[in-house]
Amino acid sequence: MIAVPNYISPEEYLDIERQTPIRHEYRRGLVYAIAGGTDNHDRIAQNLLYLINLHLRDSSDCRFYSGNVKVNYQDEFYYYPDAFVTCDSRDRSDRYVKRYPKLIAEVLSPSTQTFDLGGKFTDYQKIDTLEEYILISQETQRVECHRLTGTDTWETQVYGEGDRIILKSLELEFAMGELYLGLDP
């Protein structure tokens, strides 16, 4: 990720985002352009959203979003997760930014993997409604689930090929293979 090398206020960032078709993420005054992903990256995110949709379709409390809606914490960051779910009614008033997600998923890319595993996870942990942070590999059938188990205590569970993935925050369980359906070698 390459940042625009001068400080931009959160208000300036949001104004820029409303005026441009190019998506950018914001972190503590720096703005980062988001590169496009691969077809497999997109397919994995769509498969996850499909599974969530099937599970939540009868729930009127929860909403799920793809990488086109921002997640924000105070004025520290604005990120575009690949998928996330919010069940908090406070997130219904703003069509562009959500602040109370309970689950966030990122599909790992070589260019973002280090940040997704490190700084971004540290940032997301500041969101008090977040219960699970999921990192999905494009290269192998591997899902790393970081789950809040107590006050400021995160447990990591790694799922591999043939496993059933459990998303406790949504009470959702599915086969690993469902996440990787339709990928090209």
Automatic annotation (TrEMBL):
Occurrences of domain Putative restriction endonuclease (ranges): 10-173
Single GO term (MF): endonuclease activity
This protein's name: Uma2 family endonuclease
InterPro entries, sorted: Nuclease_put_TT1808, Restrct_endonuc-II-like, Uma2
Gene3D superfamilies the UniProt entry points to: tt1808, chain A
Keywords of the record: Endonuclease, Hydrolase, Nuclease
Top-rank taxon, per record: Bacteria
